[in-house]
Backbone:
């Protein structure tokens, strides 16, 4: 990161500050909603990854064993 | 508040139950696996994959774990569990190649080449190399030679290693074809990463925005110790307590990339926090030079070394060297009559007794006692055994003992106190060695 960016951050007294100060309880609720949203996304991604995963493993040593056992 | 030990036991039971659930399907259902290298490869692979996700969860800084189990205990579990995961990963890799060589009646070199050609195996190899590298740098002998900053950066690569290993696990023979197990496994990983993202990334970013913590003053306490006072807004919302610590990242060009764990060295107020830092290397020394007004990215508060843990009618605080920082903050606020609070502060020289004037001031105001033990540890007057501490405070059995010192001193005091019969639950510690 550049010196200018840090210097701007150091000098700026109102970095990313909202004009309306939210109340602590509004912030707590906002954070809860963010957490819920994050875990909803994690659930969707997890389920989708699970259902999209291969049905037969390309590395299956198991199948080798079964094949050998059947010989 | 639930006693931390009970919470820790519940978490441990859940972790082991999860491990059993992860491994059992491998050996109890599906096609039979020949005993020997193949079985070992399957079991160690599943255990390593499960363990890697659990390590992420344990170190996600989730407040429920931090408060319930305690930072020190989590770090101990992580140290032990992390080593186990690395060993299991190596065992898995070696035994998988061995198993493949046996089923194909080929030598190990050819088997390695075969195995590495499967999809996702190159990523798994990179993941294993990273894990082994991190494991090596965590060995005590090597760790001492590596700066904290390098060690920290290497540890960050673990996230990459875990993500690279995940694709291989999902397509591995133990999960492939078992749809619900694949979904459960994916959820374990996505939840682990979500926890990390929530508490190690979003929370500090939110805190930076909400509290706008900035360096307000830097004061030299001794030639190699500085106090950094920071000011900010709504700091009471952090609900930080004396005895707790944050991971601090000072946003300057030379210091932004490393986060350092430092305890609060004064009771937090709604607009100020203070830490006291000892220069241990180039990285910590750079903190001494941060300009006033520097923005500070703080992760925390962490740690269960707080007055809430107190159960006995009297308190003994034991500090060694810069371990005085959390003790200084607690000494200021412990809600007991002064005569029931004793602080024993061990240092090699008078110069190393940082914050002494503040401690004397608090002692004078509250009537609490400070005992300074200064000089070589071979001096009988500086003994910190249970017997010597008993002599200082009268009767250790009616004390809660809080301890923060270098790993060597802390271990000596801890061993002596345990041998001396102090119940484990009356000893509260924070350990900061990395």
Residues:
């Amino acid at each position: 990161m550049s010196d200018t960016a840090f210097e701007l951050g150091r000098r700026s007294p109102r970095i990313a500050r909202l004009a309306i100060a939210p109340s602590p309880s509004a912030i707590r609720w906002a954070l809860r909603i963010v957490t819920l949203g994050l875990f909803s996304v994690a659930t969707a991604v997890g389920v989708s990854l699970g259902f999209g995963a291969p049905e037969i493993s390309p590395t299956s040593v198991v199948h080798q064993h079964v094949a050998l056992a059947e010989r | 508040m639930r006693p931390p030990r009970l919470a820790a036991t519940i978490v441990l039971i859940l972790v082991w139950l999860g491990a059993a659930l992860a491994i059992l399907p491998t050996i109890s259902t599906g096609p039979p696996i020949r005993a020997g290298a193949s079985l070992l490869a399957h079991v160690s692979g599943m255990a390593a994959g499960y363990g890697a996700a659990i390590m992420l969860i344990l170190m996600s800084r989730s407040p429920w774990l931090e408060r319930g189990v305690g930072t020190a205990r989590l770090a101990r579990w992580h140290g032990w569990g992390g080593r186990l995961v690395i060993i299991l990963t190596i065992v898995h890799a070696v035994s998988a190649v061995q198993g493949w060589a046996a089923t194909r009646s080929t030598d190990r070199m050819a088997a390695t080449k075969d195995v590495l050609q499967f999809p996702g195996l190159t990523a798994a190899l990179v993941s294993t190399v990273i894990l082994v590298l991190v494991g090596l740098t965590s060995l005590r002998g090597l760790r001492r030679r590596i700066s904290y900053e390098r060690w920290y950066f290497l540890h960050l690569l673990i996230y990459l290693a875990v993500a690279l290993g995940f694709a291989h696990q999902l397509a591995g023979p133990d999960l492939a074809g078992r749809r619900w197990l694949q979904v459960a496994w994916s959820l374990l990983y996505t939840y682990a990463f979500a926890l990390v993202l929530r508490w190690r990334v979003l929370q500090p970013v939110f805190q930076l925005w909400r509290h706008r913590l900035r360096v307000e003053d830097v004061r030299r306490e001794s030639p190699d110790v500085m106090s950094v006072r920071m000011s900010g807004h709504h700091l009471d919302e952090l609900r930080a307590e004396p005895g707790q610590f944050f991971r601090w990242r000072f946003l300057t060009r030379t210091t932004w990339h490393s986060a350092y764990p430092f305890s609060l060295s004064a009771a937090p107020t709604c607009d100020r926090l203070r830490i006291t830092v000892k220069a241990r290397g180039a990285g910590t020394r750079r903190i001494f030079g941060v300009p006033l007004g520097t923005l500070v990215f703080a992760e925390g508060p962490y740690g269960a070394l707080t007055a809430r843990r107190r159960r006995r009618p009297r308190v003994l605080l034991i500090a060694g060297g810069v371990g005085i920082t959390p003790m200084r903050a607690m000494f200021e606020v412990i809600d007991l009559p002064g005569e029931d609070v004793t602080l024993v502060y061990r240092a090699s020289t008078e110069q190393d007794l940082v914050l002494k004037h503040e401690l004397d001031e608090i002692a004078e105001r509250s009537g609490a006692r400070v005992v300074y033990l200064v000089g070589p540890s071979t001096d009988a007057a500086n003994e910190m055994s249970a017997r010597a501490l008993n002599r200082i405070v009268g009767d250790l059995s009616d004390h809660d003992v809080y301890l923060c010192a270098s790993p060597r001193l802390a271990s000596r005091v801890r061993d002596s106190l345990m041998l001396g019969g102090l119940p484990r639950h009356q000893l509260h510690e924070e350990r900061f060695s990395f």
